[in-house]
Structure formats: C-alpha cells, structure tokens
Amino acid sequence: MLKDIEVKIIAPAQLPPVLYWLLNHKYHTEQWDFVVMFDAKWQILYVNRTVPENDVKKFVDIASWQTWYIGDMDCPIADDVEYVYEAYGWNVWHILTEAHKDRMKKREAEKAQEKAKKILPVIKAEMNAIVDDEIPDPMDDYLVSCINDAGREADRDRDMHECLVNTGTKYVFYLGYLMGSGKIKEDTEA
C-alpha cells in the first residue's frame, strides 16, 4: 500500500544530493532558489523552510490527491493548483503535479495487482484444464500472433512511452473478449 507523504522542512543546503542534481539539471534551478522537491522512492516531500505553512499544506494536498485531473476546474483543489502555479511558477507546479502523477500510477498498479490476484487462479485453472486435455484448446496461436502483429503495426507511428501495454496486446485482449461475448465466432469473421 502506498504510504502517506512525509514532509521534511529543510534549508536548501540540506536537500539530498540526487534531488539537488535534479533540481539543478532538470529544473535549471539553483540551490538557493529551492522551494520543493519530491523523492518518489521514499515518498518524501522536501520543502524549503521559508515556505509558509499554508502553502506547504497545499503542496501536500496536490501531491497526494486521490483522483486524476487535479487541474480541472471541478476538482476541489483546482484553486490550490492554480495558486501554486501563480505564486511559485512552472517548476514548482511541475514538481508537484509529477509527484501526483507518480503516486496515482502507483495506486493504479496496486489496484491492478489486487485484481490480478483474484483473476490469475481462474486463468491458471482454465489453462491447466487445457493442458490436461480435459477441454480442447480454443486458442489458435497463429491467429493470436497475427492479431498482435496488426496491433503493433497500428502503433508504429504513435508515441507509446507512457503506455504500459502495447496495442498488440490490447488487440489480443479484445479478440478474447469478442470471442467470449459471441461477437466473433470461431470459424467465421466478425
């Protein structure tokens, strides 16, 4: 389970070396201009001791918000996000929204792992029944390979660096879904 954010109020010289390097090289910010940095590995938000306590609370709220789309005007913290951008600039806003994004991805991965724990035994039982010749194998390896290749080909010109699963895998998933729902019959086309 994703732990809560720990806040450390520090002087700029106390920023850990790896975060200082990121501050300097990624955000082009000098050490004495440090406002906030987030350590995603340890879930620590380092905040300059000169930042007012109310702003520190806003920083924590932004980084730890439980839903996506914190910039939408309907989001309860949208005003805080806008305030941080106006008061501290793009770098601080970006550091906090990236922290939020990182935490949301970790939350979603945890949810997916919990779902997978429940689903995998069903899949394994079905696979074992096929291996033990209790039921015929409905999977056509060549068909799955062709569908996977077609999906990958569809993504050839798209930026997929943020995706966890390639489109070929999604195509194979939908093949199974459509076959299971009866929209694709075994010996006919869609």
Model description:
The protein is 54% helix and 7% strand. The radius of gyration is 24 Å and the shape is elongated. The chain contains 6 helices and 3 strands, in the order E-H-E-E-H-H-H-H-H. It has a 3-stranded mixed beta sheet, with helices on one face.
Quick description:
This protein is mainly alpha-helical. It has six helices and three strands; from the N terminus they run βαββααααα. The mean pLDDT is 88.
According to DSSP, the number of beta strands is 3
Binned, the helix content reads: 40-55%
- Structural class comes to mainly alpha
- Count the helices. How many? 6
Shape: elongated
**What is the end-to-end distance?**
42 Å
Q: pLDDT average, as an integer? A: 88
Quaternary = single chain
Order of helix and strand elements from N to C terminus: EHEEHHHHH
Relative strand content: 5-15%
Radius of gyration: 24 Å
The order of strands across the largest sheet is 1-3-2
Largest sheet: 3 strands, mixed
- Poorly predicted sequence stretches spanning 5 or more consecutive residues: none
